[in-house]
Amino acid sequence: MKYSESSNIWYEIPEWVSYLLSIGYTFAESVIDDGFALVSMPCDSPGAGLVALGAMRYYLSLAPLSSDDMHKRIRESDVLLYSGRDRFRYLGEDEGRAVVEELIRNDYRRRTPPQPIIRTALLENLNLRFENETVLASSTEMLQYSELYARLYDGSSVNNANLGQSHSAVCLAGKRKGLSVTTKLLHEAFFRYKDERVSLYDLLSLMNGSFDVVSRVTLYNTRTEKMDRSGEQPEIIVTDGIDAFLKIIDLKRTGKISAGKVIGVLDRTEKREKINSVRDKVSGLLDYYEYYELNSLSEISLPPKGMALATYKRI
Q: pLDDT (tens digit, 9 = 90+) per residue, 281-305?
């Protein structure tokens, strides 16, 4: 597999890229329930996106949500469902198939209101979603690139059923100076396997403004303090830059986010006072967290030259 940034020159996957993917995968997989990690990079890079992709790759290896799990979530939510612009009310299930009633919007030009339509089908064939969330499961919007995902990490296989289910466990928090700065880096990094050439942005399956898609990474706008979707809280957040890391740590400390794991990808070309602010923040957290050797749990290698990793877990 090859890697490239903003050019047609392709390289075997660089050591630093493999290392960042491994950090994301290993930290997501680790037994740490509450902890944070700092990855120090020598310059600005798509590093946060690569770490998020590694974490996403871990969740692709797990068992997908079962039909029973999805039906249970719909029952417990007790809210309207959407498919495109159409609205539905969940009525129940029939031998594993969802039974929904289409809600017809009132049109006062009609002399008689249309009769509601009852549909019975597998959830993945209905492309249903909650309001302001991505589709639960889809047979038509499945993520591509299964071979490429599999090649990203040799420690486990991809469960292809996950490619048709949305997931919000992984969140990428963009740079404070603007989300477009982060997404530009993601658009300029590419992987290639055989004839497939895919940007890091597309591999992360970000929503790109549409809810009617399968997406497995949530995007947090650090400037506006908004997530790109409502619904379930992420389990692991990867932050792009110092400002994003400090913001997410404060939200975690005050209980405004419930993610147990945070990975800050930091750029050492930032101003000295910003770098010192991270040191001061971590120093204040050490009353509650202790250093944790992530390397001891896996095959993850020592950092490549110019990079550093420090991991902490709740005492």
A: 999 999 999 998 876 545 567 889 9
